[in-house]
Automatic annotation (TrEMBL):
It comes from Micromonospora echinaurantiaca. Gene3D superfamilies: NAD(P)-binding Rossmann-like Domain. GO terms for molecular function: oxidoreductase activity. CDD domains: SDR_c. It comes from the Bacteria. Belongs to the short-chain dehydrogenases/reductases (SDR) family. The lineage of its organism: Bacteria, Bacillati, Actinomycetota, Actinomycetes, Micromonosporales. Residues 6-190 form the Ketoreductase domain. Keywords: Oxidoreductase. This is NADP-dependent 3-hydroxy acid dehydrogenase YdfG. InterPro entries: KR_dom, NAD(P)-bd_dom_sf, Sc_DH/Rdtase_CS, SDR_fam.
Length: 263
């Protein structure tokens, strides 16, 4: 996909990867970029910083009616949606001990929000013979987020759902990509480090933390090639191969890393 004259919607668009995507899409010549976020003021500020092609929208991605309203309003305003980026996400920094409310929130934001987006945009995209869905899934969706059980489980589910969409609708013109970065310099990572979360410490110790703008560069390249897996950290592909070929050895290596970080 070339972004010139396209209509794009980005959830979680007010900061981090989302705002970097919004800026880059506008720079690539998008006709309109809808910056959707739970934080209405932050969405307004992000859109204002981009310019007249950007439009802000307040939306809770865990509320299907709000997602449907976002899609309907965008289609009324611009006539269509060419690219929908389901980018909102949450981490927990915990394991099996977390209460059901934390697991439910992770499930609703990291998985069901993608389902709600697909339900809302698919009818229009399929009727027009094409469209693009970009799901921000994280390298945790193909590997493991050490120290964060809900994040690991839900990001694996997000990759699985994106792959299902790609297999089911590709022949009807739908393109799907799963964006799977590893460490990115975002508020999510900063908050995790401040809280002492093990997963954030693993990412920081890797020395491979990218800026959101670097992730946006990888997205532009991945969309141009219509690749299913967009890996801003190319080494993730090698990790995934090692994990598939020698799961016991891969797990042993992760356990060693955890022991070292725990002192």
């Amino acid at each position: 996909m070339n972004l010139t004259d396209r209509i794009a919607v980005i959830t979680g668009g007010a900061g981090g990867i989302g705002s970097a995507l919004a800026r880059r899409f506008a720079a690539e010549g998008a006709a309109a970029v809808v910056v959707a976020d739970l934080d209405a003021d932050a969405a307004d500020a992000a859109a204002a910083g981009i310019g007249p092609v950007a439009h802000a929208a307040a939306v809770d991605v865990t509320d299907e009616e709000q997602v449907r309203a976002l899609v309907a309003d965008t289609e009324r305003r611009y006539g269509r949606i060419d690219l929908f980026c389901a980018n909102a996400g949450v981490a927990t920094g915990g394991g099996v001990e977390l209460p059901d409310a934390d697991w439910d929130r992770a499930w609703r934001v990291n998985v069901l929000a993608h389902v709600y987006a697909a339900r809302a945009v698919l009818p229009g995209m399929l009727a027009r013979g094409g469209g693009y869905l970009l799901a921000t899934c994280s390298a945790a969706g193909v590997l493991t987020a050490v120290g964060d059980a809900p994040y690991t489980a839900t990001k694996h589910a997000a990759v699985g759902f994106a792959e299902w969409l790609a297999v089911t609708y590709r022949d009807q013109g739908l393109r799907v990509s799963a964006l799977c970065p590893q460490g990115v310099d975002t508020p999510m990572l900063a908050d995790g480090l401040a809280a002492g979360h093990l997963g954030a410490r693993v990412i920081a110790a890797s020395g491979a933390v990218l800026s959101p703008d670097q992730v946006a560069d990888a997205v532009i390249a991945g969309l141009a090639e219509e690749r299913f897996l967009i890996l801003p950290h190319p080494e993730v592909a090698g990790y995934a191969r090692r994990r598939a070929e020698d799961p016991d050895g891969w797990q042993a290596g992760l356990r060693k890393l955890v022991r070292r970080l725990r002192g």
